[in-house]
């Protein structure tokens, strides 16, 4: 039962205070810990720094054997729109926004109801949701391909919105369930006594209080749909319907891969996502592990 | 009131409600009322159920169908094929090496990831200046598209001017640019190890964070007690930290198993599974087969799906026991 109450408190983004904080002047040990930690940090951002550096390389210095170019140029970022990548960026945005809106529309009522009411089949429903998260589009890609090319005829953008929403639903339902569950029932009962309906209480009381959870679900779904690759690769077949990930994949392997523009595009596609992710970092683990790790 | 606030974890065990059930028996509600009660959740859950049915369950059915159909390379369905696609698959000369490679791929990545993450989680659990910055740096590979990370690594391994080769040339490991040694991704064995490294690189952040969450949930007084009993550092880790970390570790390992088994963009972007499928895992091989023999691809996806189901079952069990242990 202990785990239940632990998990019932919403995943807070408290900065975990280290257990062994030393008050003395920096010892050799602290210096050593710092050195290792900074080195690790550097290793993990290195590929993304290289991404930025390549995007800033002038054409003439692209193939130079050095770490940094002699000149920097922003031309790759401005020229990129003439390569048609703007269209693909728009598709990515459409898919990501569409999936996010759909996930929230579907997940909020389900998470609210399962957190408020005990009903027959509740456990089965939550497990079904959990299982969908584990399945991942990759393992079902042959089925997804057959469904959307032979049976269901919708344009690929809509298909991608549906698939991304379906496979990211679990995260949203589980994290919202935890947030909704932590809001005392008395609050909405008070609203309902005042004559508000259950739906009204959900909108006026519950949703505003669970806003951090909703924002987490929103950012997580947006990023997942934005980064998605295999379904998009499978379901799109024209240049203009491909999201950025697929378009970039078709760039490489060509005779003269346009690396600077490729990396300019990946900087545009990656850096905002990393920054967005930093906002929800503390809450993602509990959502992904369905609360079993806290 | 707090106790009645239910959580997802409690869901698997059907919540018994003796009071309510007894009340229901006493009143013997009419059939119509019972039906209404049973259907009450529907307006709230139906959209989610419909979406899951449409994009998750339907493909599962389509996948099984495909594995039993005779579909030629132009995509024409020539009707029922019995188990022929499966016999083609099991007679496929590539299958054996692809499966061995898949096992190596999964175990190497998960094992290395967990070892590195155990160390990193300990490191990040300490207080030191700039800790927040280090945590942020660790986010990058997690948030970025795996496919774009793989593209950068491919570029860094470029035989002509990739920074990895520039560095290895400077320290004297690589002698000639554009030589066979510098073409890391052209050699199946070297390519596989580089791709394993990239997969570890993108798996470590989540794993570290999951273990860190496990570490911070260990109450401080347990350590206090161990210290009073005079337990040393290593003994404390072995007797306290590691056992208490086990539920978190188990869940992190299972999620990693699933992700790594289904890993696709890294291999697809860096080598395409080639040369001659020599760097393909079963997921990548399934995708490659899809282009010219979708029936066999369907059979392989059913086999792969069996593995996925197995991991899911263990995951569900682990979740339940983690709940009890916690």
TrEMBL record, chain A:
Q: Annotated region Disordered: where? A: 1-21
**Any one Gene Ontology BP term:** transmembrane transport
Record keywords: Cell membrane, Membrane, Transmembrane, Transmembrane helix, Transport
Q: What main location does UniProt list?
A: membrane
Keyword check for Cell membrane: yes
Limits of the ABC transmembrane type-1 domain: 89-280
Show the stretches that span the lipid bilayer.
Answer: 28-49, 89-112, 124-145, 157-180, 201-226, 259-280
Instruction: Identify the GO cellular component terms for this protein.
Output: plasma membrane
Q: Where in the cell is it found?
A: Cell membrane
- Database matches in InterPro entries: BP-dep_ABC_trans_perm, MetI-like, MetI-like_sf
> What membrane topology does the annotation report for this chain?
Multi-pass membrane protein
* Family to which the UniProt record says this protein belongs: Belongs to the binding-protein-dependent transport system permease family.
UniProt name for this protein: Carbohydrate ABC transporter permease
Q: Which organism is it from?
A: Actinospica acidithermotolerans
UniProtKB/TrEMBL annotation, chain B:
**Chief place where the protein resides:** membrane
According to the UniProt record, where is the region Disordered? 1-22
Which regions are flagged for Low complexity bias? 8-22
Question: According to the lineage, what is the superkingdom?
Answer: Bacteria
- Does the keyword field hold Lyase? no
Keyword annotations for this protein, in alphabetical order, are:
Cell membrane, Membrane, Transmembrane, Transmembrane helix, Transport
Question: Is Iron set as a keyword in this record?
Answer: no
Where does the UniProt annotation locate this protein? Cell membrane
**Membrane-traversing stretches:** 38-61, 103-124, 136-157, 192-218, 239-261, 298-316
Q: Which GO terms describe its cellular component?
A: plasma membrane
What is stated as this protein's family in its record? Belongs to the binding-protein-dependent transport system permease family.
Q: PANTHER family recorded for this chain?
A: ABC TRANSPORTER PERMEASE PROTEIN, INNER MEMBRANE ABC TRANSPORTER PERMEASE PROTEIN YCJO
**Protein's recorded name:** Sugar ABC transporter permease
From which source organism is this entry?
Answer: Actinospica acidithermotolerans
């Amino acid at each position: 039962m202990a785990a239940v109450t632990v998990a019932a408190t919403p995943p807070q983004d408290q900065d975990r205070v280290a257990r062994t904080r030393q008050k003395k002047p920096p010892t050799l040990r602290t210096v050593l810990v710092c050195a290792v930690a900074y080195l690790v940090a550097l290793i993990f951002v290195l590929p993304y720094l290289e991404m930025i550096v390549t995007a800033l390389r002038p054409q003439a210095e692209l193939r130079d054997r050095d770490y940094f170019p002699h000149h920097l140029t922003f031309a790759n970022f401005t020229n990129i729109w003439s390569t048609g990548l703007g269209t693909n960026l728009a598709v990515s945005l459409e898919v990501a926004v569409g999936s996010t809106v759909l996930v929230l529309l579907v997940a909020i009522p389900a998470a609210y109801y399962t957190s408020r009411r005990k009903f027959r089949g509740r456990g089965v429903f939550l497990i079904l949701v959990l299982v969908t998260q584990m399945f991942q589009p990759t393992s079902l890609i042959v089925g997804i391909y057959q469904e959307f090319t032979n049976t269901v005829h919708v344009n690929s953008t809509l298909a991608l919105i549906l698939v991304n929403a379906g496979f990211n639903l679990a995260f949203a339902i589980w994290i919202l369930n935890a947030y909704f569950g932590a809001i005392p029932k008395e609050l909405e009962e008070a609203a309902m006594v005042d004559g508000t309906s259950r739906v009204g209480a959900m909108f006026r009381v519950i949703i505003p209080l669970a806003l951090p959870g909703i924002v987490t679900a929103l950012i997580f779904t947006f990023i997942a749909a934005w980064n998605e690759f295999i379904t998009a690769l499978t379901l799109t077949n024209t240049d203009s319907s491909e999201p950025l990930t697929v378009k970039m994949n078709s760039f490489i392997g060509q005779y003269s891969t346009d690396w600077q523009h490729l990396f300019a595009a990946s900087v545009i596609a990656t850096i905002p996502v990393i920054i967005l992710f930093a906002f929800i970092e503390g809450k993602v683990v509990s959502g992904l592990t369905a609360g079993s790790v806290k | 009131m707090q106790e009645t606030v239910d959580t997802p974890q409690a869901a698997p065990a059907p919540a018994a409600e003796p009071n309510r059930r007894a009340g229901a028996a006493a009143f013997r509600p009419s059939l119509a009322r019972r039906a209404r009660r049973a259907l009450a959740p529907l307006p709230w859950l139906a959209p989610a159920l419909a979406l899951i049915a449409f994009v998750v369950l339907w493909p599962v059915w389509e996948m099984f169908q495909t594995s039993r159909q005779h579909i030629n390379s132009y995509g024409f369905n020539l009707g029922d094929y019995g188990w022929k696609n499966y016999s083609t698959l099991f007679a496929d000369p590539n299958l054996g090496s692809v499966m061995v490679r898949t096992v190596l791929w999964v175990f190497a990545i998960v094992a290395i990831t967990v070892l590195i993450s155990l160390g990193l989680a300990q490191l990040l659990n300490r207080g030191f200046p700039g800790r927040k910055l280090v945590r942020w740096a660790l986010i990058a590979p997690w948030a970025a598209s795996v496919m774009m990370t793989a593209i950068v690594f491919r570029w860094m391994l470029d035989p002509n001017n990739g920074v990895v080769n520039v560095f290895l040339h400077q320290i004297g490991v690589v002698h000639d640019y554009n030589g066979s040694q510098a073409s890391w991704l052209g050699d199946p064995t070297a390519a596989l190890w580089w791709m394993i490294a990239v997969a570890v690189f993108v798996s470590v952040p989540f794993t570290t964070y999951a273990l860190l969450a496990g570490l911070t949930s260990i109450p401080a007084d347990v350590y206090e007690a161990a210290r009073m009993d005079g337990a040393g550092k290593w003994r404390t880790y072995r007797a306290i930290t590691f056992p208490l970390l086990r539920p978190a570790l188990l869940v992190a390992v299972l999620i990693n198993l699933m992700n790594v088994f289904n890993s696709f963009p890294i291999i697809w972007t860096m080598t395409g599974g080639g040369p001659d499928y020599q760097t393909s895992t079963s997921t990548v091989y399934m995708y490659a087969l899809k282009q010219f023999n979708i029936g066999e691809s369907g059979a392989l996806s059913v086999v792969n799906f069996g593995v996925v189901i197995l991991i899911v079952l263990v995951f569900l069990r682990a979740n339940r026991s983690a709940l009890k242990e916690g």
